[in-house]
């Protein structure tokens, strides 16, 4: 009887071991660091995915990310990806799901998928908060009443750490520490402008300190302070409301979402290429509606949007 019990115990343990061998799990150094089930890359770096156990055979798959569930995009076997590890990178594999199929004896099983995430590192963009009645827009520039102020903000301030703010266009990217355009001491994700200038910033991410981005020239904003004819005495400032704007996915291949719920609607949204050419425009855009950018040539674009209460957003995105 004792021998029989020992045999059954060993058989039970063998079955447990077989079951463990049939439950592959993906792991990597950055997996889950910022978001569960996601790997977030630093610029041009690679990441090695691996299974937590060894199996007889492997086949890795990838699937392009989609904004809704279920994802209609097919899982595609990666040619030559038949070892325990798979190296992916932030240039080619951003916004793709990955999984692995393994075999061990008579067992064949698939892992849960993981995402090479791009939304967390959406490119920085400039938001400008004006006080109603204290400004007017003229040919892309903003005349602001003397005594008023404009709060400028990095729309992805939570992602980016150290900032360098400018009052004119710097002469190089990255900027020289002695560039005369640098505003001394302005290193946060917001800056309040009270004098005329061309404003923008250079910022580095907290997760990858060496990953830094400069706003493109057309993303800088020109402010002219003075006593204009439209100005009145009501230039007292009020504390701006919390102001965040989402632009995702970034990069994108087809659909782009932009906006924040409190704005509800944007009277005008313009998409501009890096040469300054207007390539797409939408009026009365609702924040919950996608913008189809599938027809755009792959590259970097600027989105300029204006809310009904006078806020101006300048956002950069990548069309893959």
From TrEMBL:
Highest taxon above the source species: Bacteria
Pfam families in alphabetical order: Por_Secre_tail
Keyword S-adenosyl-L-methionine assigned: no
Keywords: Signal
Position of the signal peptide: 1-20
Domain (Secretion system C-terminal sorting): residue spans on this chain: 247-318
GO biological process, alphabetically ordered: chlorophyll biosynthetic process
Name this protein carries in UniProt: Por secretion system C-terminal sorting domain-containing protein
């Amino acid at each position: 009887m004792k021998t029989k019990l020992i045999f059954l115990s060993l058989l039970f343990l063998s079955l447990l071991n077989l079951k463990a061998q049939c439950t592959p799990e993906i792991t990597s150094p950055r997996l889950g660091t910022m978001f569960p089930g996601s790997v977030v890359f630093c610029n041009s770096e690679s990441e090695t995915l691996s299974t937590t156990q060894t199996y007889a055979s492997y086949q890795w798959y990838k699937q392009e990310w989609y904004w809704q569930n279920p994802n209609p995009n097919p899982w595609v076997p990666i040619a030559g990806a038949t070892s325990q590890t798979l190296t992916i990178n932030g240039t080619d594999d951003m916004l793709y799901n990955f999984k692995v199929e393994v075999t061990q004896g008579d067992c064949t099983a698939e892992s849960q998928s993981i995402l090479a995430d791009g939304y967390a590192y959406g490119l920085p963009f400039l938001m400008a908060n004006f006080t109603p009645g204290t400004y007017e827009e003229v040919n892309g520039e903003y005349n602001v009443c003397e005594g008023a102020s404009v709060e400028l903000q990095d729309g992805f301030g939570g992602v980016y750490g150290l900032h360098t703010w400018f009052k004119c266009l710097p002469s190089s990217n990255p900027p020289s520490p002695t560039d005369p355009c640098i505003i001394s001491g302005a290193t946060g994700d917001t800056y309040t402008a009270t004098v005329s200038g061309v404003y923008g910033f250079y910022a580095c991410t907290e997760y990858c300190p060496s990953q830094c981005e400069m706003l493109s020239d057309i993303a800088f904003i020109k402010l002219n302070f003075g006593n204009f004819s439209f100005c009145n005495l009501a230039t007292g400032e009020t504390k701006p409301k919390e102001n965040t704007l989402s632009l995702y996915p970034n990069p994108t291949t087809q659909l782009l979402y932009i906006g924040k719920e409190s704005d509800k609607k944007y009277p005008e949204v313009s998409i501009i290429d890096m040469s300054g050419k207007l390539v797409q425009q939408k009026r009365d855009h609702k924040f919950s509606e996608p913008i189809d950018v599938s027809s755009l040539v792959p590259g970097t674009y600027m989105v300029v949007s204006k809310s009904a209460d006078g806020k101006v957003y300048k956002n950069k995105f990548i069309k893959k």
